[in-house]
Structure formats: C-alpha cells, structure tokens
Amino acid sequence: MFFRQYYLDCLSHASYLIGDTTTGRAVVVDPQRDIAEYVADAESNGLRIEKVLETHFHADFLSGHLELAERTGATIGYGRAAEGRAEFPIETYADGDRIELGEVELEIRETPGHTPESISFVVYPHGVTSAPYGVLTGDTLFIGDVGRPDLLASVGVTADELARQLFHSLHNQLLTLPDETKVYPAHGAGSACGKNLSTETVSTIGEQRRTNYALAPMSEDEFVEAVTQGQSVAPLYFSFAANRNRQQRDLLSDDITVPTLTMSKVLADQLDGAVVIDAREDAAFAAGHLRGSINVGLGGRFAEYAGQVMTPQTPIVLVTSPGHESEAKVRLARIGFDRVLGALEHPVDTFLDYPHLTERLSRLSAAALAERIRTVDNLVLVDVRNPGEVELGTIAGARHISLPALLTSLDQLDPDAPTVVFCAGGYRSAIASSLLRARGFTDVSDLVGGYTAWQIQQTTPSDSSN
User: Fold this and answer.
1) What is the pLDDT of residues 377-390, one digit of tens each?
2) Residue 418 burial (C-beta neighbours within 10 Å; 0-12, 13-18, 19+)
C-alpha cells in the first residue's frame, strides 16, 4: 500500500494519496487546489489517480477536485447526501460501500454532523476482512476535537440538529473501530473548523477516546452543549468557498506569474475598487506603505486572513518582498481569491519615489499604551482575538470584535475616535489596524507584542529609587 499525508501549514489542511502498488490504482482525498505534488508522486510511484474523494463540501479552502479530474481523468466522489448539490458530475457513496484499488480497499462510513454529507474512509491494506490501517475522518473527528456543527446555520440547518448527528456519527461509526486504528483528519491546529485542534496530524482511535474532550462520557445533550459553545467567528470567506466547491468554476492555471504594475497603475486600480494587500512583514509595512493598503503578512496564515479583510471576487493588487509574488497568488487561489491584477514593482524604491503617497503604521509598546489609557479621553480599545482567547483575559474596557467580524462591524466604531487594536502577539492587530486605516479611521494604533506583551508589562515591577 502507498499512503501519504500532505499537510499545508498555512491552512492547517491535510490531504491524502492512497494507492495499491500491485495494481497501480490510486485515489486522492480532500486535495488542495494546486495539485502538482499529487500528480508527481503518483507518477514517480507508478500510480494512476482514478478517483478524487471528498469527505464533504469544504468551506475553509477551495478543493482541487476539478483540477485533478481535468488532469488525470479521475471521477469525483462524495457522500450520498451530496446528490444533486454539485454542478459537475459526481459519484456518490452510501454507508458500507467499498472502493477496491486491488488488495487495498476503502470502506465508506457516513458521518454527518459537521455537514450533512460528511463521510469518512476506513483504509484496509489487505481487504476489509483484515484489521483497518486507519480512518480518514475529514472534519468529523480531529486530533483533540470534533468538527464544529454551526457553519450551516445560514442555510437552514441548525447547529443543534448537526451536533446530534455528529454525536451518533462519532459513537456509532468511528469509535466502533479498533483502538489501534490511526486517525487522519482533514485539519490541524489553527483551523477555524474546530476550537481545540492539536498540532499533531495523526493519532489513534484509542488515544482520542482517552484524551479528546468531545469523546468523554456524556449525554447527547451535554455533547451538544460542549461542541456548540465557544466557537470562533467563522472567517468571512467560508460561505463563498463552500459554494464554490459545489460549482463548476475556472481551473487554477499552471501559469502563476504575476504581472508587475507601476505606481500609477496601482493607484488607478485602487480607485476602481481594488484592494492593495501588502504581504510584507508587519515591521516593513509599519516603516512605510501605500496609503489605503492592508497588511497581511505572507509569513502567517496569509490566505485565511486576506479572506477576512475583503469580500470575495474583489480585485487584488499585491505588494510583496521581491520573489514572493507568485507564492502570494497561489495561496490566495487556495481559497478561491483569483482576481490578482498584479504586484507593485520594486515596492521599497517606489515608496521612496512617492513619499507623498506613503504613510507609517502607528504602533505602541505596552508601556506606551498604558500611558495612553491614563491620558487620552474616550480611547477605544478593540480586542480582535477569538472568544476563547478573550475568556482567559483582556485589557479592561476593551471591546471584543474578532478579526473575522471586523469588516462587517465597522459601523459599530467611531472612525474619528482614538483607537488601539490588539491581538495575542501582533500579527492580527497589524491586519486590523491597517484595515481600519484603509476604511477611513483617522487615529489608529496597534499594540506591539499584543496581549502577551501587555500581561508582561502589567506584572513587571516598576523601577523605583531607594
């Protein structure tokens, strides 16, 4: 058996290539949109990708099922509850169906709860009469958590209904597997598809039975309460990606070159509604950037956060460090943000040539913020962290608006009031403060080092003379 996990850190996304080395038949499960690695690995190992299998219609990334089907001729498969919901041809699988690759077999188990059509794949290296090697659980069971059941509330499926389905899927379909069965989920720590995901990317049924809070002995009602409370605000682009994953859409091109744009062209595009995303590190952005641009550093969860500061289908102009333009374009494409117009040529030199078009980001140390709190009337503090983080503590008087909700909550803030935003360490607050400035807020700063730096400052004794 050939079995390989592909883990995409920037989206906390796991996908899989599984094949039978004696027959050469293979499948890919939950692929990312840029598919070259699957194709290359299949070719180098003598495998033919015959099926692209999806555990469900994903919301946090744009899947590569259409790209793989076009490249390899593979069919696309979903659980039977997906019947009639896709604009492209699909095969559907019911509980107990099998996919035979040779000696290697996959057994489908219907595991609704995260979504109605969710399924899991039990992998048998020597046929279904042998012990299972592992189970690909999609977003039903994570390492340390389970899939959140609240993402479909906007389309008429309640979190309570899905949570109850999830309870039975876990106990009747997954926990019935042997304890030594390996668990391979679709996501890890950082994903907004759950609230307590581990940094580990593989576990076992037995380990999850012992350590996963959602699998502890409890009633169905207690389970519903446990998994529906404390979830973060879903990123703004999730509903867009979920719909795009059901649609017939344009394929990701192999050509990932990004045109270079002059400052005059960037300004014209900005005037026409394009968003300028500056993907440099926050320190470089703070030192000087194009007025009206938004800082989303490429070194972090770039695509996810870019998808929180603009609406889908918005034209995008990039500002990056030299040589990173194509990387930024591909990472945006992974969530379906394809309208990249180009990248500003020679950003630093261009900013020096146009000083009247640039500005600096106002950043405060924890000590400077403490002084502003003491001396500035009507100072507005905005905590952009997730609810679970805020529950552990925040700065007195701060308003909580999670970053995913900020773009749609601007009317709750006064653009003329002195405002300071903060997160845990500074990455998200740089995004938030640049977004507010781009939307016309006149006096915005962010906290360097975030709430972590604030806690240290508050607990460090002040110097005093004898």
Assistant:
1) 999 999 999 888 99
2) middle
